[in-house]
Amino acid sequence: MSQPLVLKNIEGPVAILRLNRPQVLNALNLALMDELVDQLKALQDDDSVRAIILTGNEKAFAAGADIDEMADVSLAEIKMKNQFLVWDIIPRFTKPLIAAVQGYALGGGCELAMSCDMIIASENAVFGQPEINLGVMPGAGGTQRLTKALGKARAMEYLLTGKPLPARVAYECGLVTKLVPDELVMQEALSLAHEIAQKSPVAVTLIKEAVYKALDTPTQVGMDFERNAFYMCFGTEDRVEGMKAFQEKRTPQFKGR
Ligand code: HXC
């Protein structure tokens, strides 16, 4: 059996992970999600890696959770399995995670893309939460993240009808960072990842955490977090290097310390 997830390569500081179940449009089974989290943990521990791209293939980023795997599962089994434990970790990884999306990003595939820090999408990508058509609902953040991006009225329509959310709409509502022609998706994701990989990794991680605070907490709580995170930057060598490089009119070399 081929690997459900492939560490395609590490291009300098950027690692590329590819979902690899093309025969089922990269449907996300439990083994694939476990493997994804294991790979992300390994990349987090690898100091040479500073940004990660998660992608699929031209036809699908992922067409959802694996319906065949779920079809006969009982309530007790799904509750006790607690499969979302691994999903919840994804936005908590310290390194920036960019989804490069072509084709379908449906159901769990849409939720996985939305769990990443940024999404670069092809103009032909199709997002959406079609779970309603299976008699269920999103379970990995679809109702929450889509509502935060689209607003209640429009999220309700997409969630209650299950209709596809075209990439252009996803871009216009701020769910997608950048929309590009099919053939440029990976190039654009790599360019963004390499740019961020040149920054101070500690500052990058703290900014990520602060942005998630903005989504999840009242403003003053987020502001307090931001202030303390700002102070924390003053404990890093990268802060000294960044400010010194500015004064010496040269490009800073950030070491992640
Ligand atoms: C299992 C899937 C699958 C899925 C596609 N396949 N999506 N298998 N789980 N989610 C399989 C098909 O059965 C088929 O296998 C092969 O992939 C190709 O798919 P086709 O349907 O033949 O392709 P196409 O006609 O191009 O249609 C593409 C599609 C359609 C519109 C994306 O496949 C589709 O509607 N898929 C299901 C989308 C969905 O409902 N996702 C939500 C899942 S629930 P064979 O063997 O026939 O070739 C979910 C819950 C999330 O995600 C909860 C949190 C994790």
Q: How do the strands and helices of this protein lay out in sequence?
A:
Elements: E1 5-11, E2 14-19, H1 30-45, E3 51-55, E4 60-62, H2 67-70, H3 75-81, H4 84-89, E5 97-101, E6 104-106, H5 108-115, E7 118-122, E8 126-128, H6 142-150, H7 152-161, E9 165-166, H8 167-172, E10 178-180, H9 185-197, H10 201-216, H11 219-233, H12 237-247
Parallel strand pairs: 2-3, 3-5, 4-6, 5-7, 6-8, 7-10
Antiparallel strand pairs: 1-2, 8-9
Helix pairs in contact: 6-7, 10-11
Hexanoyl-coenzyme A binds next to helix 2, strand 6 and helix 5.
Report strand order across the widest sheet: 1-2-3-5-7-10
Structural Rg: 19 Å
| Uncertain segments | none
DSSP helical segment count: 12
What is the number of strand segments? 10
Topology pattern, helix = H, strand = E: EEHEEHHHEEHEEHHEHEHHHH
Bound molecules: hexanoyl-coenzyme A
Structural class: alpha/beta
Distance between the termini: 41 Å
Protein name: Enoyl-CoA hydratase/isomerase family protein
Family: Belongs to the enoyl-CoA hydratase/isomerase family.
GO molecular function: hydro-lyase activity
Organism: Caldalkalibacillus thermarum (strain TA2.A1)
Q: How would you describe what is shown here?
A:
It is a single chain. The protein has helices at 30-45, 67-70, 75-81, 84-89, 108-115, 142-150, 152-161, 167-172, 185-197, 201-216, 219-233, 237-247, and strands at 5-11, 14-19, 51-55, 60-62, 97-101, 104-106, 118-122, 126-128, 165-166, 178-180. With 257 residues, the chain is an alpha/beta fold. A hairpin with a 2-residue loop joins β1 (5-11) and β2 (14-19). α6 crosses α7 (152-161) and α10 (201-216) runs antiparallel to α11 (219-233). The protein is globular and about 60 Å long. The mean pLDDT is 95. It binds hexanoyl-coenzyme A. The site of hexanoyl-coenzyme A (HXC) has 20 residues, from α2, β6 and α5. Hexanoyl-coenzyme A is lined by residues 24-25, 27, 63-68, 104, 106-108, 111, 130-131, 134, 138-140.
